[in-house]
Amino acid sequence: MFPVSIKGVLQSPEGLVVLMLNEREEWELPGGRIELGETAPQCLAREIVEELDVEVAVGEPLDSYLFEVIPGKHVFIATYRCQLLGGFVPTISHEHKEIGLFDPAQLPANLPKGYRDSIGKALGL
Predict the structure, then answer these.
(1) Can you tell me where the transmembrane regions are (predicted)?
(2) Where are the domains of the chain?
(3) Neighbouring C-alpha atoms within 13 Å toward the C-beta of 58
């Protein structure tokens, strides 16, 4: 059995993609581990509040795949489209090193392919 992580493609009001820099120096989509009794959308909405202190509406699923986080350690990733609700004044949590806002056409090189593909699906790239 693999851990399950629910991730969201979210854009700022200016249309920039919201990414988080993790401890492995990789950019990732906001989101995290699903908890017992949660649906995937409930998990993602909770995680985005915890990680960014912003509220979102979770939309349709985009993709799912098995991701090798580090050699020999895999996580099942499911990605969803998200829509910002209310204001956007993100606050970084202890879980990440930095919040990044990126033009969809200029995503960082250290963004794993699966996240890049989900962004492409969400934005029609």
Answers:
(1) none
(2) 4-123
(3) 21
Per-residue pLDDT reduced to its tens digit, 47-69: 999 999 999 999 999 999 999 98
Within 13 A of 95's CA, how many CA atoms are on the CB side? 18
Q: In this model, does residue 87 exceed pLDDT 90?
A: no
C-alpha to C-alpha distances, 28 to 1, 14, 39, 51, 76, nearest whole angstrom: 22, 19, 21, 12, 14
In the 8-state DSSP scheme, what is residue 109?
T
Domain 4-123 CATH class label: alpha beta
**Residues counted in the chain:** 125
Tokens of 41: 């959308």
**What is the value of pTM for the model shown?**
0.91
pLDDT digits (tens, 9 = 90+) for 67-80: 998 888 999 999 99
With a CB cutoff of 8 Å and minimum separation 6, the contacts of 115 are 7, 19, 27, 28, 29, 79
Residue 55 burial by Cβ neighbours in a 10 Å radius (0-12, 13-18, 19+): middle
Q: Is the pLDDT of residue 29 over 90?
A: yes
